[in-house]
Design goal:
29% helix, 8-stranded parallel barrel, globular, alpha/beta, 2 domains, 9-stranded mixed β-sheet, 20 strands, 424 residues, Lyase, Ornithine Decarboxylase, Chain A, domain 1
């Protein structure tokens, strides 16, 4: 469920007309619904607790949508943060996430990033290789600390909606193999700078079937039991994220209730605290990208291009992942649908959002909304072709606020400086 609905024939967000936002802020613009963010978080949390999972750590995956207002909305509900860079740790802290609810993951943490996270007091460092274990131990020792760590394991389970977002196969770069996990956990136990507290996994994103989760979690359960059989303490099991969201043309994913029931089955009697790292499932359907039709270009052979002021630099998922986004006119015309290729202005053929999509008739100046754009939309945007970053707007209870303004061209140019030999 999301809170983008037609009100008196116009697409609105929590009672705010998207056309009013577009008029005030300009287009393209990302619009997020507070009510949807809150609902998606609480539905998942309540589903887990209803299955008897006590105090689960739901660490929102900041990479999905790192806007401070979005993180702050979730932090006020008790969300933690799953982070993969120093910048994301800083964002989580700035948004009010307590450090003891922040997990720091990622396969390539630098020494400076590790030191920052340890000094900040994050809950857990998810270690993804033996070199990273060694580096973290050395840095923690130099700071006079014992870093709480988990070993991230690659369970060799195929999952994910696209090859580029699958993370749990043996040939993916993430985590250590089961063959390494027990030895590295024992090594961490004997490292003076480390305190191993658990194991972690994350098998992919946009997963629409519970079977891969259950297979991976079963393997993780066996690992916990094996570690304990060797006399090694395991307090926490981090099961990652990846639960899919309905992108309108895809199979309906399992409900949070079905997911929670499966987690309960897989971990029953294990006596560990559980952590989760949802991102897309919370943010995706809480946001839309509103764009304006620049013109309709009709070729003599009949192909029609709807050229928008939004481009692949604003929403790269279709170009990068062949992703499908439902496209809805903000003020649809009641007429027979027309087949369009919907494209942006960037000088690349890849700047194509969809081909042969039937939509209500469009005209120059019309507004359209890309649905399910709250995750990996603004977070992956860029200034390619020297296009300004898209502003972001948060809506709550009939009011809206700009939570990331559109920079000016002067702002963009001012970030770059001339070398001394080019000065006049």
């Amino acid at each position: 469920m999301n809170h983008f609905e037609f009100d008196q024939g116009e697409l609105s967000c929590e009672g705010v007309r998207l056309s009013a936002i577009a008029e005030a802020v300009g287009t393209p613009v990302y619009v997020y619904s507070t009510a949807t963010l809150e609902r998606h978080f609480t539905v998942l949390r309540d589903a887990l607790t209803a299955e008897g999972i006590v105090d689960p750590l739901i660490a929102y995956a900041v990479k999905a949508n790192p806007n401070l207002a979005v993180i702050r909305t979730l932090a006020r509900l008790g969300a933690g943060a799953d982070t993969v860079s120093e910048g994301e740790v800083r964002r989580a802290l700035a948004a009010g996430v307590p450090p003891e609810r922040i997990v720091f993951s990622g396969v390539g943490k630098s020494a400076d990033e590790i030191a920052f996270a340890l000094k900040a007091g994050v809950l857990e460092m998810n270690l993804e290789s033996e070199p990273e274990l060694e580096l973290t131990s050395r840095i923690a020792q130099s700071l006079g600390l014992r870093a709480q760590v988990a070993i991230r394991v690659n369970p060799d389970v195929e999952a994910g909606g696209h090859a580029k977002i699958a993370t749990g196969k043996a040939d993916n770069k993430f985590g250590v193999s089961f063959a390494e996990a027990q030895r590295l956990y024992a090594r961490a136990t004997n490292s003076p700078g480390l305190k191993p507290v658990g194991v972690a996994c994350h098998i992919g994103s946009q997963i629409t079937d519970l079977a891969p989760f259950e297979a991976a979690f079963g393997k993780m359960r066996q690992l916990v039991e094996s570690l304990r059989a060797e006399g090694l303490g395991v307090e926490r099991l981090d099961l990652g994220g990846g639960l899919g969201v309905p992108y309108f043309n895809q199979p309906t994913p399992p409900s949070p209730a079905d997911y929670a029931a499966m987690v309960a089955r897989a971990t029953r009697g294990l006596d560990v605290s559980l952590a989760f790292e949802p991102g897309r499932v919370i943010a995706a359907n809480a946001g839309v990208l509103v764009a304006r039709v620049l013109h309709i270009h009709e070729r003599p052979e009949g192909r029609k291009f709807a050229v928008l002021d939004a481009a692949m630099n604003d929403l790269i998922r279709p170009a990068m992942y062949d992703a499908y986004h439902d496209i809805r006119p903000v003020l649809p015309r009641d007429a027979v649908g027309v087949v369009y290729d919907v494209v942006g202005p960037i000088c690349e053929t890849g700047d194509t959002f969809t081909r042969d999509r039937t939509l209500p008739p469009l005209q120059s100046g019309d507004l359209v909304a890309f649905m399910s754009a709250g995750a990996y939309g603004a977070s992956m945007s860029s200034e390619y072709n020297s296009r300004l970053l898209v502003p972001e707007v948060l809506v709550k209870d009939g009011a809206f606020a700009v939570v990331r303004p559109r920079p000016t061209y002067e702002d963009m140019l001012a970030r770059e400086t001339a070398p001394a030999w080019q000065e006049p």
